[in-house]
Design a protein that fits this description.
With 207 residues, the chain is α+β, with helices and mostly antiparallel strands. The protein is 30% helix and 22% strand. The chain has a single domain (9-199), classed as Spore Coat Polysaccharide Biosynthesis Protein SpsA, Chain A (Alpha-Beta Complex). The protein is built from six helices and twelve strands.
Length: 207
């Protein structure tokens, strides 16, 4: 798979594999689907939560199940969903796409709103600077039930990797304008000018 001016070949392949998953969910009969990358580490009780969908907020388009161990902003209101987990609205950026739940309706919207790879897939899903994210209602599961294996050794989070920010990508002026407009829309939709909290990182319920 060829690279694009802004994405590496690996990033294009990753984006296309996720988009294929969205298509399967969009075409399927189930109300929700979950997408996991192949390097993910699960909490010991992940299967209990994923065995049914009764805990999923009715208005949720996407629920992020992963922690990338960076600062995140969530709504202050957390709703318990059992087994020590809760969900809260994700109102800021939280990159990483190793594990998330997506509704059938949201998958259909993602297919309509995306095409050839222009952005890394975790920004498409979890960066409010893009409309593909800001037009969704997105929740964060806390603690996270999965994380990328690069962060985990012997069931423990590597402390040296916590708070490592994702690489910065230079943007054109028009892209910056679009990003800020999309971010503003996300704030309005999430009512996130108030009632939010910043966490140093979403905890991971280690295996």
């Amino acid at each position: 798979m060829a690279a694009t001016p802004s994405l590496s070949a690996a990033e294009v392949c990753c984006y296309l594999s996720h988009r294929r998953c969205w298509q399967i969910i969009a075409d399927g009969n189930d109300r929700y689907g979950v997408v996991f990358e192949d390097d993910v580490v699960f909490s010991a009780d992940a299967g209990l939560l994923l065995s049914d969908d009764q805990w999923v907020p009715r208005d949720a388009d996407v629920v992020k199940l992963e922690s990338f161990f960076i600062k995140v902003r969530l709504a202050r209101k957390h709703v318990a969903v059992g087994n020590g987990y809760s969900v809260a609205r994700l109102v800021g950026e939280h990159v990483g796409a190793a594990g998330y739940l997506v509704s059938k309706v949201a998958a259909q919207k993602l297919i309509r709103r995306t095409g050839p790879a222009r952005h890394v897939v975790d920004h498409v899903l979890f960066s409010p600077t893009l409309l593909t994210c800001s037009l969704n209602t997105t929740y964060q599961l806390t603690p996270a039930l999965c994380a990328q294996s690069q962060f985990i050794v012997g069931g423990e989070v590597l402390p040296t990797l916590i708070q490592v920010d994702p690489p910065h990508r230079r943007k054109r002026v028009i892209d910056k304008i679009r990003s800020e407009a999309s971010r503003g829309l996300a704030h309005v939709r999430n009512r996130s000018f108030w009632g939010t909290e910043e966490l140093p990182a979403v905890a991971f319920k280690a295996p």
